[in-house]
Amino acid sequence: MRDCLFCKIAKGEIPSEKVYEDDKVYAFYDINPEAPTHFLVIPKEHIESANDLNDNNIDIVSHIFKVINKLVVELKIADAGYRIINNCGEDGGQTVKHLHFHVIGGRSLKWPPG
């Protein structure tokens, strides 16, 4: 999508602090972190939200979780714990219309989140 913020970040058109990149996904640190470790993982293909997952693109979710598993180990938050968040739609708190997963850790996280 031409005007999508996350598409532009994944293409390098908008600067970000990259955590990881491969041919399918891009991971970068959140500009307003909610915890000592807070990064996002996005598919490079534009998928607006979890509502737009289907038989043709659902495999990206397993790849994203595989990447998250690798990164939480590398960033040393796997053992203590972390949270993976996907906001879907306006009431779900989705502010960027591009499928993304927040990964936050490095401190004790409370529930409910808000």
Give a concise summary:
The protein has 114 residues and is of the alpha+beta class. It has two helices and five strands, in the order H-E-E-E-H-E-E.
* CATH class identity: Alpha Beta
Strand content: 15-25%
Major sheet attributes:
5 strands, antiparallel
Number of individual domains = 1
Essential attributes:
114 residues, alpha+beta, HIT family, subunit A, five-stranded antiparallel sheet, 19% helix, globular
Please give a structural write-up.
- InterPro entries: Histidine_triad_CS (IPR019808), Histidine_triad_HIT (IPR001310), HIT-like (IPR011146), HIT-like_sf (IPR036265).
- It holds the Pfam family DcpS_C.
- This is Histidine triad nucleotide-binding protein.
- By secondary structure, the chain is of the alpha+beta class.
- It has one domain (about 5-105): HIT family, subunit A.
- It is built from two helices and five strands.
- Strands 1-2-3-5-4 form a five-stranded antiparallel beta sheet, covered by helices on one side.
- A hairpin with a 3-residue loop joins strand 1 (about 20) and strand 2 (about 25-30).
- It is globular.
- The mean pLDDT is about 95.
